[in-house]
Structure formats: structure tokens, C-alpha cells
């Protein structure tokens, strides 16, 4: 194989022929962004190319002046000597894989991706390529995520069993909160859902984009009102559970929606009574299935459990390398 058209640098993945970075961890002159989560989308770049929804999400999170210039991806385009195209990643609203092509070589940087059904975004699109760059967030054989509908039924069963206790569910503001709401709606829960103020703008944006979240009410009531709240589902970002906000609710059931809830020790450390294993990332089975399906000549592995995936690739006779990129911390997920 000829020299790759993407190379790892301290700022992130760099394309010399196009003079741009993909999901850089610090401000650069030109950045291509896969999705709006904070460890991939940062403010301060000279120019940003991303899907329209990702640009709008970044504006919501960072303000309208988050970059010097913004360009919404609409079709494959030339940047210098390379052709760039965006393809659905199935992770969160606006998420995309970025394919870079030149000299007969195609590299796909997948960002974060998922293979399970998610009505808030387009499903993952397998893209044939020479090099596939994959996350490894849950790249251990122990991570086999259950059906999200079953986890939602666990939540609704708990609400039926303890109707006198409000259920407070921790969920990341972009993607996971809306996913939990959608799963509740799909399961037939049509009562109002209360949301923490930190979720309001992103939930409003999902509704504007045609994602049917149903009736949402702000969870901004005072302590007296919150103390009398019963038979209620309340969604809040994980940070809210370490703030005085949570103390206004009387005897709540504390839940947390994350792929990490499969590790019971994490649930206990967080004081989570109702762990919900709901993830927006591929688990071990979907990750290895995706690599097998795409069948790249080489697999590059970014943040996560690199060792197990490297070993799997070796046993499968696949070329693989860890990138050890800096700045992709473990997401709250």
C-alpha cells in the first residue's frame, strides 16, 4: 500500500494533500468534524466542514462564532489533492464518517458509530475502503449490549412498581437524552417527560429536525413542587446528580443510561439504583462484525480498548495499528 493520505499528529488526524485535520483536539486552520460531541467537536478552528446538523449543534453548544468559517457538507468535494465525502455513522443526530480519497486509496474515519436502530439519526452506512479507522470504546468481548427496548421496559417496570417515586435518569445531553426519550415513546409511554434545563436547547433542536420527542416539560420546579412529584420520568445530564438540583426530589430512583452500566462496579460507584445499558457506540460483536463486513486492507484503532481489538485482528489475519491519538477522552456516553 502507498503512504497513507491521513497521518496521526499531536493535533489529530492530518491530511497533507488537503491540508486539514479530522476531529482535531486543539484549534487548527481547517477542521473536518464527524459529530457534535465535545471530544470530537471543539471551538476555535479557522474553518469547519461538517454536516449541516453538526454545525448547528456546535453553534448551540459553543455559540454562533465557534469557528472563523463554516461550510455545510452537501456532496463530495475536492480539498487540495483529495476528494472528501461524508457518510452516516448512526451515532447521534448529524454524525458522519469521513471518507478521504486520493491516488486510488480511500481511508474512512468513522468517528463514533453504532449499528443499532436509532430513530434520531440516519443508520450507519458501511463504506468500502483500504483503511478503516475505528473507535474502540467498548472493544472488549465482555461488552455485548442488550436490546435497548428491553432496558426501557426495565425502566417502565420500575416506574410501575414504585409509582410514588420519581425516576431520575442520567443521560448525556447530545444523543443519549433524546434516545432515552424516543425509546420511552416507542414503548408506549405518552405522559409528559421532564427534562433538566441543560437539555432544553438540544431537545428543542431535535424536535425542529423532525424527531418526535412528545411532550417535554422543564424540570425547574422548586423544592416543594419537586418533592410532590410522583409517577414522573425526569431526564438530566450526569453532572446534575452532583449538584443541589437533585436534592429537590423526594426519594427518587436514580438511574443512568450508558453502555458503561454493564459494569456493575461503575453503577455502585455512582450510586445508581437503576442501571440501564443503553449505548450509542458499537459493542464488541457489532464492532468486529463491521470490520469483517467492510474488510479493509488495514484497521486503525483510536480511543478505547486497543489491545483486545489488536489481538482479534492478529487472530483474524488482519493488519492493524493503534493510533494513540491524544484528546479523545472516555465519553460520558
Automatic annotation (TrEMBL):
Keywords for the protein's UniProt record, in alphabetical order: Exonuclease, Hydrolase, Nuclease
The UniProt record lists the keyword Oxidoreductase: no
InterPro entries with a match to the protein in the record: MBL, RibonucZ/Hydroxyglut_hydro, Xnuc_lig_assoc
GO function terms (MF aspect): exonuclease activity; RNA endonuclease activity
Family matches, as PANTHER family: BLL1145 PROTEIN, CLEAVAGE AND POLYADENYLATION SPECIFICITY FACTOR FAMILY MEMBER
Stored NCBIfam families: Xnuc_lig_assoc
Protein name: Exonuclease protein involved in mRNA processing
Species: Thioclava atlantica
Amino acid at each position: 500500500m502507498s503512504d497513507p493520505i491521513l497521518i496521526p499528529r499531536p493535533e489529530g488526524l492530518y491530511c497533507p494533500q488537503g491540508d486539514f485535520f479530522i476531529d482535531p483536539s486543539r484549534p487548527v486552520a481547517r477542521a473536518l468534524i464527524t459529530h457534535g460531541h465535545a471530544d470530537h467537536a471543539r471551538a476555535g478552528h479557522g474553518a469547519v466542514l461538517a454536516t449541516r446538523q453538526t454545525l448547528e449543534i456546535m453553534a448551540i453548544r459553543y455559540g454562533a462564532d465557534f469557528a472563523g468559517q463554516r461550510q455545510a457538507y452537501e456532496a463530495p468535494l475536492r480539498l487540495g489533492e483529495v476528494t472528501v465525502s461524508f457518510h452516516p455513522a448512526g451515532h447521534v443526530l448529524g454524525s458522519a464518517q469521513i471518507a478521504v480519497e486520493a491516488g486510488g486509496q480511500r481511508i474512512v474515519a468513522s468517528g463514533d458509530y453504532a449499528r443499532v436502530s436509532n430513530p434520531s439519526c440516519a443508520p450507519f452506512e458501511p463504506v468500502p475502503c483500504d483503511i478503516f479507522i475505528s473507535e474502540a470504546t467498548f472493544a472488549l468481548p465482555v461488552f455485548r449490549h442488550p436490546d435497548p427496548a428491553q432496558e426501557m421496559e426495565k425502566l417502565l417496570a420500575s416506574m410501575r412498581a414504585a409509582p410514588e417515586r420519581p425516576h431520575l435518569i442520567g443521560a448525556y445531553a447530545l444523543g443519549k437524552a433524546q434516545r432515552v426519550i424516543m425509546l420511552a415513546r416507542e414503548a408506549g409511554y405518552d405522559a409528559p417527560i421532564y427534562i433538566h434545563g441543560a437539555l432544553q436547547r438540544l431537545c428543542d433542536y431535535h424536535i425542529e429536525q423532525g424527531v418526535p420527542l412528545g411532550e417535554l416539560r422543564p424540570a425547574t420546579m422548586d423544592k416543594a413542587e419537586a418533592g410532590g412529584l410522583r409517577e414522573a420520568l425526569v431526564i438530566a445530564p450526569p453532572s446534575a446528580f452532583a449538584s443541589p438540583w437533585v436534592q429537590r426530589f423526594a426519594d427518587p430512583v436514580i438511574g443512568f443510561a450508558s453502555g458503561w452500566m454493564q459494569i456493575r462496579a461503575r453503577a455502585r460507584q455512582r450510586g445508581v439504583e437503576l442501571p440501564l445499558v443503553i449505548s450509542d457506540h458499537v459493542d464488541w460483536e457489532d464492532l468486529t462484525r463491521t470490520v469483517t463486513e467492510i474488510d479493509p486492507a488495514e484497521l486503525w484503532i483510536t480511543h478505547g480498548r486497543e489491545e483486545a481489538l489488536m489481538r482479534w485482528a492478529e487472530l483474524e489475519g488482519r493488519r492493524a495499528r493503534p493510533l494513540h491519538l491524544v484528546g479523545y477522552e472516555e465519553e460520558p456516553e
